[in-house]
Design a protein that fits this description.
Elements lengths: L2 H4 L3 H11 L7 H15 L5 E8 L11 E5 L10 E4 L2 H10 L3 E3 L1 H9 L9 E4 L4 H4 L3 H4 L17 H10 L1 E5 L5 E8 L4 H17 L10 E8 L5 E3 L4 H4 L6
Parallel strand pairs: 3-4, 3-5
Antiparallel strand pairs: 1-7, 1-8, 2-6, 8-9
Length: 248
């Protein structure tokens, strides 16, 4: 065994052996099938399935920002806790839809005085009329990725509909500083078909949100992985055609 391999854990060695049996790139279907086999043999908990897409964009240019939302048809496999900043009937609408927290100025004040309240929810939605008041806690929400944003679909008057959509599988995606989009598309206990449906919905949404200023190859690479597992590169040359089978 090579010296480098001696430093690998038993689990990592198993990953390496399984990956070496695969071509350098595979179809999305084959990648998901291989990922499921790896998880079945090596995972003891319900790991997340993740998709990482490297885009050919210049992240320094505002007109090449890639940020939007997509409804994953099979959900995320997670319980999403939604809080809403709203007043009056909109507050009642949010609570009726299943929001874990809802309120106006008093909820903003609570966030301002006690940041531990952020641990009570995963996504924050706000009505447009509350955004000016919410600005006072932007420095608290921003670093946690919780500041509502129109592009992320979290600034809206349709709070009830949005709460239900977020709980049902609506997720935000955005390119990071390296131009890579990272999104969880399922869990270990999802079927291959469920993962492929979610992956196809995400990939299609990214294609539809291609910035007009992006030049050259838009999708440079696609990798599927699990929380603690290896990444499996997907062949992108026929991917747009492959996903049509799984799109509704």
């Amino acid at each position: 065994m090579a010296t480098a391999d001696k430093k690998l854990t038993k689990r990592q060695q198993q990953f390496k052996t399984m990956l070496e049996s695969l071509p350098s790139t595979v179809t999305a279907k084959d990648a998901v099938e291989s990922l499921k086999q790896i998880l079945k043999a090596n995972s003891k908990f319900n790991e997340s399935i993740e998709c990482h897409i490297r885009l050919g964009i210049d992240v320094k240019k505002a007109d090449q920002m890639v940020r939007s939302t997509v409804d994953l048809p099979e959900g995320t496999g997670k319980t999403v806790r939604v809080a809403v900043i709203a007043k009056g009937d909109k507050e009642k609408e949010a609570l009726a839809a299943g929001a874990v927290l809802a309120g106006g100025d008093e909820l903003i004040e609570r966030i301002q005085k006690d940041a531990t309240v952020l641990a009570e929810f995963d996504v924050l939605v706000a009505t447009p009329d509350m955004m000016a008041a919410l600005a006072k806690v932007a420095r608290i929400l921003g670093p946690k990725g919780l500041m509502p944003n129109p592009k992320g679909g979290t600034v809206t008057a349709a709070v009830g509909e949005t709460v239900k959509a977020l709980q049902g599988g609506k997720v935000e995606f955005r390119a990071d500083k390296q131009g890579i989009v990272h999104v969880g598309i399922g869990k270990r206990d999802f079927t291959e078909a469920q993962i492929l449906k979610n992956f196809s919905a995400l990939y299609d949404a990214i294609l539809r949100n291609k910035p007009s200023g992006a030049k050259g190859t838009y999708v440079k690479s696609v990798t599927l992985s699990s929380t603690m597992g290896p990444g499996i590169p997907v062949d992108t040359t026929k991917l747009a055609l492959e996903i049509k089978e799984y799109l509704n």
